[in-house]
Amino acid sequence: MLHHRSRTSPVFRLCFTILLSALSATAAAEPSFRLNALTDDIGWLTLRGESRARYESLDNQFRANRSGSDQLLLFRTLLHAQARADNWSLGLELQDSRTYLGDSGTPLSSSIANPLDILQLYVKYDDAPGLLGPDSSTQLTLGRQTVSIGSKRQIERVDFANVIKSYTGLHVVSTAARGDELHLVYVVPTARFPNRRPALDDNELSGDEEQWGRHIWAVHYRRADILPAFASDLWGEVFVYGLEEEDTSSFQTPDRSYVAPGFRLYRAPKMEQWDVDLEASWRTGSRYATSQRTDTENLETDAQMVFAALGYTFPIAWSPRFAFEYYYASGDDDPADNRFDQHERLFGSRRSDINNTSINGPLTPANLNAPGFRIEVKPGPRTDARFYYHAAHLASATDAWVIAGLRDTTGQSGDFIGHQLDGRVRHWLIKDSLRLELGGSALIPGEFPKNVPGGNDEVTLFGYTQLTFSF
User: Fold this and answer.
1) Do residues 202 and 139 touch, judged by C-beta distance below 8 A?
2) What backbone torsions phi and psi does residue 447 show, to the nearest 5 degrees?
3) In terms of DSSP H, where are the helices of 218-337?
């Protein structure tokens, strides 16, 4: 086994946490700062940004054939400028994401490190004819952009990840007076560079590029208050997402051809009220088993995902909300049946529903069967906290634990990944400007990681300290 130890002691971790807290405390009495205040006299220009620092530590690596500890220091800075003339806007957002303290065993990728590049560069028109009746209006965004819709389980602008994904193409949003939304999307994802080591370790500059051989399309309709006689403020959504891929000279794909219809029912948490979140989608189509040029055999796909949550917010101190949750994402039952029925996570979120990610993140909505619960509290207007637990199983014992890279095609290692616990606390030191966040996770291994070849039977612990300055 590869034995990987972090390069600094626990004393460094503690000192770094104290340093961030001390810096935060000295700033707590200061007024909030907004970059846009510098352009008050320029009515057509708006500026905003964010700078974030996070230190992470992971003990007892859960990934295949690894053990020991890991750490990472991450920085992300965003700067967004938008020039406006009548109903037209021109936007530019820069992203600079860098990492330090990692070593050869750190699971670095282009989702963690992406030095200075263009995250968004778009033209927007705000007054196109509405598509939802006479009281509706439409906004069109063309160019490189970030996309988030509804629950963000299908496509999102990530938050916790050190690198935000972007797409290039057209996003049309038509909004009715009552709040209904119709989203029409046709984009290609942006490939982030560098994407290999040692360039990732060295934070080398390398321009991102559009993946012109990969096409994402979507029709997503959200309707407000669909059953007022049954439950007020209940949203209904129907959608269909598609992905078409083909190889190009610079990028190999599994040639996925997917169509995924689905629906969602959602009622937001509110004091003394039951809330609900039910989302399901079915994915059909085909793909190759790998991205290799020699792989030309189509595998039929039939994959599903379901997320369900039922919660209640109690009218007592700290406004606690308790919710039962369940996440299911299908796995591939038979590795030899010329099918690929695993529900892959493509462009949607996983951190909000499942676990803290980055160098951690053992769970993802692929081959997952995970019942659990969540507790959220709000001690004051500047502070919130949450804790959630999942009993994580493989949906198919013969398919892979995807993030860990572990698989027993015989199914004899069992299907119980383990008990996953996650939590965080956030506090605005300067309201809407400077926020401190502390979080942690624990994975208590079940039968599968203990029995599968290359697995780890030790408890994995993850913790982070994060400071975010919004300006």
Assistant:
1) no
2) -65, -35
3) none
CA distance linking residue 207 with residue 114, whole number of Å: 9
Q: Which residues pair with 186 in a beta bridge?
A: 170, 217
d(CA 468, CA 327): 30
CA-based nearest residue to 348, from 241, 188, 233:
241
Q: Which residue is it, tokens 């996925």?
A: 256
Per-residue pLDDT of the chain (471 residues; tens, 9 = 90+): 333 444 444 434 444 554 455 455 555 556 677 777 777 778 899 999 999 999 999 999 999 987 789 999 999 999 999 999 999 999 999 999 999 999 888 989 999 999 999 999 999 999 999 999 999 999 999 999 999 999 999 999 999 999 999 999 999 999 999 999 999 999 999 999 999 999 999 999 989 999 999 999 999 999 999 998 888 899 999 999 999 999 888 889 999 999 999 999 999 999 999 999 999 999 999 999 889 888 888 999 999 999 999 999 999 999 999 999 999 999 999 888 989 999 999 999 899 999 999 999 999 999 999 999 999 999 999 999 999 999 999 999 999 999 999 999 999 999 999 999 999 999 999 999 999 999 999 999 999 999 999 999 999 999 999 999 999
CA distance 240 to 219: 6
Q: Do 163 and 119 touch, CB atoms closer than 8 A?
A: no
The answer to whether the beta carbons of residues 218 and 240 sit under 8 Å apart is: yes
Q: Are strands 66-85 and 2-4 parallel, antiparallel or unpaired?
A: parallel
Provide φ and ψ at 189, rounded to 5°: -75, 160
Q: How many residues are recorded in the chain? A: 471
**pTM of this structure:** 0.91
- Distance of alpha carbon 193 from alpha carbon 213, whole angstroms: 17
**How far is the C-alpha of 392 from the C-alpha of 93, rounded, in Å?**
38
What SS3 state is found at 35? helix
DSSP string of 322-341? EEEEEEEE---S-TTSSB--
Name residue 150's amino acid: G
Q: What are the strands, taking DSSP E only, across 30-166?
A: 45-59, 66-85, 88-100, 114-129, 137-145
